Amino acid sequence: MPSKSSSRPTKGPKNTKADGSKKQRWSAAERAARGHGPRRGGGRPRSEVEATGPGRAPRSVDRWDDRRSTDRAGAGRRDDREERRPHRDERQERRPYRDDRDERRPERSERRDGDRGRADRFDRGDRRDDRFERRDRDDRFERRERDDRRDRFERRDRDDRFERRDRDDRFERRDRDDRFGRRDRDERRDERGGDDRDHHRRASRPAADQHGSRRFESRPHRFAERSRADDRRERREDRPEWQQLTGYEGGDADQMEWTPTAAAEVDPGTAVVVEGPGFADLGLPSALVNALAAQQITTPFPIQAATIPDALAGRDVLGRGQTGSGKTLGFGLPMLSRLAGGARGTTRGVVLVPTRELAMQVADVLSPLAGTLGLSVVLVAGGMAYGPQLKAFDRGVDVVVATPGRLIDLMDQGAADLTAVEITVLDEADHMADLGFLPDVRRVLDTVPAGGQRLLFSATLDRGVGTVVREYLDDPVTHEVDSGQATVSTMAHHVFQVKPAEKQSITAEVANREGRTVVFVRTQRGADRVASQLREAGVMAGALHGGLTQGARSRILGAFKAGTVPVLVATDVAARGIHVDEVSLVLQVDPPMGPKDYLHRAGRTARAGGEGQVVTLALPHQRREVARLVKQAGVKTMAVDVSADDERVYRATGARKPSRPAIEDRDYEALIAPPVKVRSSRRPGGRGQGGPRGRGPSRGGWSRSGRGRAHEGA
DNA sequence: AAAAAAT
After folding, report:
1. Residue limits of the DEAD-box RNA helicase Q domain (predicted)?
2. Is residue A150 part of a domain?
3. Which nucleotide is nearest to A150 (CA to C1')?
4. Which residue has the higher pLDDT, A276 or A132?
5. Which nucleotide is nearest to A221 (CA to C1')?
């Protein structure tokens, strides 16, 4: 039989790609380390796949119905905490089509190439996923426990806009009650406190101890990360150790100049003049006080003065302070101070934040301060190399600043041990308590020992955190340092009523003003589109959203901070917490989803006592919605009807008619491309011209940096 | 709709 010699068995997993090359697969041991069972056979017979139509996944609605009924059937599932995330194979059983992914891949990439237009020319390498992969990503979420979230959105679509809020509240409450009823909750509490905890811990991290984190040396995807990391290697040596440790990609990682951020950078000129008690009077150790003084930070902001004493005393704290009012130090200083008293090398502090950029920023602020106390900080976030993060845990790290996904990843792998954590912080706590984040946050809070200190901070801390507070906080004290104002007094608000045909040119006029501007849009594609329209109009603008690779995100944000790209077109990924100096105007091209989003977006300007303007564009059909949002955000502003080339717009915002020629893609790329290497040493196998990664020269930033390198090396 | 993990 000729087929005897075939390397491919007729049954079982397919181990080669279409081109015959070997697939990168986790070994059995690696699968086991992740808690997966042995790999199963490859889904349904091919003929069946074709009958359904390749590449056509069943409509998500069907899958949802499927999931829901399954969940209802297994109503007690919540009781087994370690089983809360269904086993992978289990999930695949529920949704048999997923095993066909490998067969669909070729078609997907065809579609991608055809579908993506000019953006592809320069963006391909930086763009992590196209629409189709994004759909996949959504599938991933669906597989998890996101029923409630979807539920909510489906209903929301049908809802009348004006009733939306109330209904959402109602649904959230109902969902919570259904799923985490009181009895259930109490049991969960008991488990956390009891001896059971160790059992759960081990169960949720199977085989962790046998393997140790070394096993990840062979993880296939790390090679991809590493080749990108190659570009950074030399610079990395010059960076502080914690950045080397974390594989940090912020600002300087991709060699856009990185300026330390947030409160640590408050300009001494604008900082409050010394009056009243200083940080020392709040009970902070002198090492910290001196470190702060060295950064010209001498007088606590109100939120800091309010929260630090209670947090130092070990109490659970809910802190609400206006955007840009120094919340990071509000939780960071007391956390570090309290940890300074204990043994080093065990993870005792965790800070959870909703976005990677914010994680970097918080790590940036806390790391030097921690250093003065002999504490170490690690940044744990997705999109960055695993190695440094794993290494940090191997060596022992005191404080973890993390986005939830990667932290849970590392927990599951047994790399991150959070069982000795004493202080847990939720930054942007209301957002972290949102339906989208809650399951992940809950997992972390369930892992961390019960009874530890919990600090919840946000500019919009509202009842949305109620569940978290009830379940995880003990007799919390609340500090609201708002002076009753939703937004800071140095912020000016405008609502412009625009005609659809003129919206684009008005956007360009406003964005063309002097100074740094953040433009907010609703969707990732919208961000790409608006940014490219602005460049078309001669305004240097770049898009920032979660659909970009982390490297691309870092570069554009770095370019924005450096001022080379003065206009940042962003999704709400940049709405919260991100601090960039001297953003003088926030332009909302799409209205925010809710009043809280309005406040957070607006809060990118007028930070730390500075001034800023907030402009919201409203199309005719958005008029009422925007009026409501603005009012609920506590802002008193009347909408003004404006047209393109309107003197009033110019006067109010400093807008200018764009007059420069369109910005070529390659000129834009040059600004945000990975910077030219300075040293001349040539790395074998590194990224060079016509490099090993099969990318064409069409990716301009790439060939450009290649040329630059060649010059410098010569 | 966005965000957050990824072979």
Report:
1. 277-305
2. no
3. B1
4. A276
5. B7
